Amino acid sequence: MEPDTSAREGRRIRQATAATTATPTGHRARPRRLGARTRKAFLLIHIASAGAWIGIDVVMAVLVFTGFLTDDRDTAAIAFQALELTTVWPLLTTGLICLVSGVVLGLGTKYGLVTYWWVAIKLVLNIVLTALVLLSLRGGVADVAEYGRQLAEGSGAGSPATDMLYPPIVSPTALMVALLLAVYKPWGLIRKRRA
Predict the structure, then answer these.
(1) Could you tell me if 83 and 63 are in contact, meaning their C-beta atoms sit under 8 angstroms apart?
(2) pTM reported for the whole predicted model
(3) CB 106 within 8 A of CB 58
(4) Helices 73-86 and 36-69 sit at what angle, rounded to 10 degrees?
(5) Residue 157, Cα to own-chain centre: how many angstroms?
(6) Which residues are bridge partners to 145 per DSSP?
(7) For residues 142 and 81, what is the distance between their CA atoms, to the nearest angstrom?
(8) Is 181 within 8 Å of 121 (Cβ atoms)?
(9) What would the pLDDT profile of 27-69 be if each residue is shown by its tens digit?
Protein backbone atom coordinates (compact mmCIF):
# COMPACT_ATOMS: atom_id res chain seq x y z
CA MET A 1 0.00 0.00 0.00
CA GLU A 2 1.32 3.44 -0.88
CA PRO A 3 1.69 5.99 1.97
CA ASP A 4 -0.91 8.33 0.39
CA THR A 5 -3.47 5.52 0.13
CA SER A 6 -2.93 4.37 3.73
CA ALA A 7 -3.32 7.92 5.02
CA ARG A 8 -6.65 8.22 3.17
CA GLU A 9 -7.74 4.82 4.48
CA GLY A 10 -6.87 5.82 8.05
CA ARG A 11 -8.77 9.08 7.68
CA ARG A 12 -11.81 7.22 6.30
CA ILE A 13 -11.77 4.79 9.25
CA ARG A 14 -11.52 7.64 11.78
CA GLN A 15 -14.45 9.44 10.12
CA ALA A 16 -16.57 6.29 10.10
CA THR A 17 -15.71 5.62 13.76
CA ALA A 18 -16.48 9.21 14.76
CA ALA A 19 -19.82 9.04 12.99
CA THR A 20 -20.87 5.85 14.79
CA THR A 21 -19.66 6.63 18.32
CA ALA A 22 -21.76 8.56 20.78
CA THR A 23 -20.81 12.13 21.56
CA PRO A 24 -19.48 12.91 25.04
CA THR A 25 -22.02 14.09 27.61
CA GLY A 26 -22.71 17.79 27.34
CA HIS A 27 -22.07 18.00 23.62
CA ARG A 28 -24.90 18.13 21.15
CA ALA A 29 -24.90 15.51 18.43
CA ARG A 30 -24.58 16.99 14.99
CA PRO A 31 -27.95 16.88 13.21
CA ARG A 32 -28.30 14.70 10.14
CA ARG A 33 -27.81 16.53 6.89
CA LEU A 34 -29.51 15.83 3.59
CA GLY A 35 -27.35 14.38 0.86
CA ALA A 36 -26.66 16.59 -2.14
CA ARG A 37 -29.20 14.85 -4.42
CA THR A 38 -31.93 14.78 -1.77
CA ARG A 39 -31.32 18.43 -0.88
CA LYS A 40 -31.55 19.44 -4.54
CA ALA A 41 -34.76 17.43 -4.98
CA PHE A 42 -36.42 19.12 -2.00
CA LEU A 43 -35.09 22.51 -3.10
CA LEU A 44 -36.62 21.95 -6.54
CA ILE A 45 -39.96 20.98 -4.95
CA HIS A 46 -39.78 24.03 -2.67
CA ILE A 47 -39.05 26.46 -5.51
CA ALA A 48 -41.64 24.90 -7.84
CA SER A 49 -44.38 25.01 -5.19
CA ALA A 50 -43.55 28.64 -4.35
CA GLY A 51 -43.69 29.51 -8.06
CA ALA A 52 -47.03 27.72 -8.43
CA TRP A 53 -48.30 29.56 -5.36
CA ILE A 54 -47.38 32.92 -6.88
CA GLY A 55 -48.98 31.87 -10.17
CA ILE A 56 -52.24 30.90 -8.48
CA ASP A 57 -52.22 34.26 -6.68
CA VAL A 58 -51.86 36.00 -10.05
CA VAL A 59 -54.82 34.01 -11.44
CA MET A 60 -56.82 34.93 -8.34
CA ALA A 61 -55.95 38.62 -8.80
CA VAL A 62 -57.02 38.55 -12.46
CA LEU A 63 -60.35 36.91 -11.60
CA VAL A 64 -61.08 39.14 -8.60
CA PHE A 65 -60.27 42.41 -10.33
CA THR A 66 -62.02 41.34 -13.54
CA GLY A 67 -65.15 40.49 -11.55
CA PHE A 68 -65.14 43.78 -9.66
CA LEU A 69 -64.14 46.08 -12.51
CA THR A 70 -66.10 44.74 -15.49
CA ASP A 71 -69.42 46.20 -16.55
CA ASP A 72 -70.42 42.93 -18.22
CA ARG A 73 -72.64 40.89 -15.90
CA ASP A 74 -71.76 37.56 -17.58
CA THR A 75 -68.01 38.19 -17.34
CA ALA A 76 -68.32 39.05 -13.64
CA ALA A 77 -70.41 35.91 -13.04
CA ILE A 78 -67.81 33.68 -14.71
CA ALA A 79 -64.88 35.36 -12.95
CA PHE A 80 -66.47 35.05 -9.50
CA GLN A 81 -67.50 31.43 -10.03
CA ALA A 82 -64.06 30.50 -11.37
CA LEU A 83 -62.50 31.65 -8.09
CA GLU A 84 -64.04 28.64 -6.38
CA LEU A 85 -62.16 26.25 -8.67
CA THR A 86 -58.84 28.05 -8.93
CA THR A 87 -58.02 29.36 -5.47
CA VAL A 88 -58.73 27.60 -2.17
CA TRP A 89 -57.62 23.99 -2.74
CA PRO A 90 -54.80 24.80 -5.18
CA LEU A 91 -53.48 27.47 -2.80
CA LEU A 92 -53.76 25.18 0.20
CA THR A 93 -51.99 22.37 -1.65
CA THR A 94 -49.10 24.52 -2.86
CA GLY A 95 -48.82 26.19 0.54
CA LEU A 96 -48.56 22.85 2.33
CA ILE A 97 -46.06 21.45 -0.19
CA CYS A 98 -43.97 24.60 0.18
CA LEU A 99 -44.21 24.35 3.98
CA VAL A 100 -43.26 20.67 4.19
CA SER A 101 -40.38 20.98 1.71
CA GLY A 102 -39.14 24.09 3.55
CA VAL A 103 -39.23 22.30 6.90
CA VAL A 104 -37.31 19.34 5.42
CA LEU A 105 -34.72 21.72 3.98
CA GLY A 106 -34.47 23.60 7.26
CA LEU A 107 -33.97 20.45 9.31
CA GLY A 108 -31.64 18.82 6.80
CA THR A 109 -29.29 21.70 6.03
CA LYS A 110 -27.06 24.09 7.94
CA TYR A 111 -29.76 26.76 7.98
CA GLY A 112 -32.11 25.08 10.47
CA LEU A 113 -35.67 26.22 11.14
CA VAL A 114 -35.01 28.85 13.78
CA THR A 115 -31.28 29.37 13.45
CA TYR A 116 -31.31 32.22 10.91
CA TRP A 117 -33.72 35.15 10.90
CA TRP A 118 -34.55 34.87 7.22
CA VAL A 119 -35.53 31.19 7.54
CA ALA A 120 -37.67 31.80 10.65
CA ILE A 121 -39.50 34.70 8.99
CA LYS A 122 -40.13 32.63 5.85
CA LEU A 123 -41.50 29.82 8.03
CA VAL A 124 -43.86 32.21 9.83
CA LEU A 125 -45.05 33.74 6.53
CA ASN A 126 -45.72 30.29 5.08
CA ILE A 127 -47.68 29.14 8.13
CA VAL A 128 -49.72 32.36 8.31
CA LEU A 129 -50.57 32.44 4.59
CA THR A 130 -51.49 28.74 4.53
CA ALA A 131 -53.70 29.15 7.61
CA LEU A 132 -55.39 32.21 6.09
CA VAL A 133 -56.43 30.15 3.08
CA LEU A 134 -58.55 27.96 5.34
CA LEU A 135 -59.59 30.51 7.94
CA SER A 136 -60.35 33.53 5.79
CA LEU A 137 -60.12 32.95 2.06
CA ARG A 138 -62.34 29.86 1.89
CA GLY A 139 -65.39 31.69 3.27
CA GLY A 140 -64.84 34.77 1.11
CA VAL A 141 -64.44 32.71 -2.05
CA ALA A 142 -67.62 30.75 -1.28
CA ASP A 143 -69.57 34.00 -0.83
CA VAL A 144 -68.23 35.55 -4.03
CA ALA A 145 -68.85 32.34 -6.01
CA GLU A 146 -72.45 32.28 -4.77
CA TYR A 147 -72.84 35.90 -5.86
CA GLY A 148 -71.44 34.86 -9.27
CA ARG A 149 -74.09 32.12 -9.52
CA GLN A 150 -76.79 34.67 -8.70
CA LEU A 151 -75.43 36.98 -11.40
CA ALA A 152 -75.50 34.12 -13.92
CA GLU A 153 -79.17 33.47 -13.07
CA GLY A 154 -79.96 37.17 -13.39
CA SER A 155 -80.86 37.62 -9.72
CA GLY A 156 -77.64 39.09 -8.31
CA ALA A 157 -78.24 42.54 -6.89
CA GLY A 158 -75.68 44.93 -5.48
CA SER A 159 -72.06 43.79 -5.31
CA PRO A 160 -70.13 41.16 -3.35
CA ALA A 161 -68.18 42.04 -0.24
CA THR A 162 -64.97 43.83 -1.09
CA ASP A 163 -63.01 41.62 1.35
CA MET A 164 -61.86 39.61 -1.68
CA LEU A 165 -59.80 42.59 -2.87
CA TYR A 166 -57.21 42.02 -0.14
CA PRO A 167 -55.99 38.42 -0.70
CA PRO A 168 -54.63 39.05 -4.23
CA ILE A 169 -52.64 41.97 -2.83
CA VAL A 170 -51.49 40.60 0.55
CA SER A 171 -50.49 37.08 -0.49
CA PRO A 172 -48.25 37.96 -3.47
CA THR A 173 -46.64 40.74 -1.43
CA ALA A 174 -45.83 38.33 1.42
CA LEU A 175 -44.54 35.74 -1.06
CA MET A 176 -42.28 38.34 -2.69
CA VAL A 177 -40.89 39.19 0.77
CA ALA A 178 -40.20 35.47 1.31
CA LEU A 179 -38.52 35.28 -2.10
CA LEU A 180 -36.31 38.28 -1.30
CA LEU A 181 -35.37 36.72 2.04
CA ALA A 182 -34.43 33.45 0.31
CA VAL A 183 -32.23 35.23 -2.21
CA TYR A 184 -30.51 37.83 0.02
CA LYS A 185 -30.50 35.91 3.36
CA PRO A 186 -30.30 39.04 5.56
CA TRP A 187 -29.73 39.49 9.32
CA GLY A 188 -27.67 36.38 10.09
CA LEU A 189 -28.08 34.11 13.11
CA ILE A 190 -30.91 34.50 15.61
CA ARG A 191 -28.54 33.58 18.47
CA LYS A 192 -24.80 33.36 18.29
CA ARG A 193 -23.64 29.77 18.67
CA ARG A 194 -21.44 28.83 21.58
CA ALA A 195 -17.91 27.83 20.72
Answers:
(1) yes
(2) 0.80
(3) no
(4) 160
(5) 38
(6) none
(7) 9
(8) yes
(9) 565 668 899 999 999 999 999 999 999 999 999 999 999 999 9
